[in-house]
Write a structure and sequence with these properties.
By secondary structure, the chain is an alpha/beta fold. It is built from 14 helices and seven strands.
Length: 353
């Protein structure tokens, strides 16, 4: 592989950034008193819209490792496990220590927090990790504008700047969920000067109404708008990436196999506007792809398959390795959608082979 080759998946992925305290973990009044629990309405909206890759974006130290065995506390580690059980992957935990730790976004959590957590569960001292984390927090640069009560916002701003400067190349869109408007404003200001190619959406979590229908509709509206724009960007960027002459047929086959996954890293392009109606429409498909008899494609997905097929056809002078011939045939025979008006000729086998 050439070192200067642009990956086909560059700038195509949508992720969510979630503050933890009072956003993802909220306080509820129950008959037994006040308890800390998951903001399930927010999680449900992420799942409904197939946003299954997130980053925790949290002002934290290592204090919560002391509650690893407490049934009434949700530690960061326990939170990640719960999200995984619900089909959501935490790609990283971004902390205020990262910019000083300088080993990449989320590295301080992976190296220091998880090590401390493991030691605590074994009744061992985690003083070394705690001291290192505190040193990073003390050395973190926070702009003068954000001293005092606004320090939390300044920390989030510094964390986000570090992330943008070191972010994975495949991220194109971010939805940021946060209860603190000051943090939202501090972070949002960074997008234009540092990375205007990122599609950035914010959603302020209102604690007084996290269980109300109005709040649920608010989440739905924000996420829906963001996904609509992200889908447009996905198709535009996919075309741009395919203009790279270094992209091979095998790259296209690999990417095709990835976007087919309804719960893969590009799952958001499968988010349906009318899932109830689509469940009804699947009964009227005249043709179905393998293992997709009960799956209705979105317009974004159908267009993406068409774009990939055109790019594949334009590379007819290339050949694929003999181990990929079956993949090639499956791709060529694959329908651009499951529409009832599609005919067998839409497989494009005749003009691709």
């Amino acid at each position: 592989m050439s070192s200067n080759r642009l990956p086909l998946g560059s700038s195509l992925r949508l992720v969510a950034f979630l503050d933890v305290d009072d956003t993802l973990i909220i306080t509820e009044d129950t008959e037994l008193g006040r308890i800390r629990t998951l903001n399930q309405q927010l999680i449900n909206q992420l799942k409904k819209n197939r946003i299954n890759h997130i980053y925790l974006f949290t002002n934290m130290d290592l204090a919560d490792v002391n509650h690893h065995d407490s049934p009434n506390r949700i530690t960061r580690k326990r939170l990640i496990s719960e999200l995984n059980l619900q089909g959501i992957t935490v790609d990283g935990v971004l902390t205020p220590a990262d910019p000083v730790y300088k080993k990449g976004p989320g590295a301080a959590f992976n190296d220091l927090y998880l090590s401390a957590y493991g030691k605590k569960t074994q009744n061992q001292s985690y003083e070394e990790e705690d001291q290192k984390f505190k040193e990073c927090l003390a050395k973190q640069h926070v702009e003068e504008t954000y001293v005092g009560k606004k320090r939390a916002a300044g920390q989030k701003r510094s964390m986000f700047q570090y992330f943008l400067e070191n972010k994975p190349a495949d991220i194109a869109s971010i939805i940021y969920f946060e209860d603190d408007k000051t943090c939202i404003d501090a972070v949002s200001e960074l997008i234009q000067p540092l990375d205007s190619n990122i599609h950035f959406t914010t959603c302020q979590v209102q604690l007084h109404s996290v269980k109300s229908q109005q709040e649920n509709k608010y989440y739905a509206d924000v996420v829906s708008r963001s996904i609509a724009t992200s889908k447009e960007m996905f198709l535009k960027k996919l075309k741009e990436n395919l203009n790279n002459p270094n992209i091979t047929k095998e790259d296209i086959l690999d990417f095709f196999n990835e976007i087919k996954k309804k719960d893969g890293k590009y799952a958001y392009i499968h988010a349906q506007k009318n899932p109830t109606w689509d469940k009804f429409r699947v009964f009227f498909k005249c043709s179905s792809n393998k293992n997709e008899e009960k799956f209705w494609h979105t317009a974004t997905y159908q267009k993406a398959v068409g774009i990939l097929k055109e790019a594949y056809q334009s590379r007819n002078a290339q050949s694929v390795h003999e181990t990929r011939v079956n993949d090639e045939n499956e791709f060529i025979d694959y329908y651009r959608g499951n529409s009832p008006i599609h005919l067998f000729s839409t497989t494009t086998r005749n003009n691709t082979k």
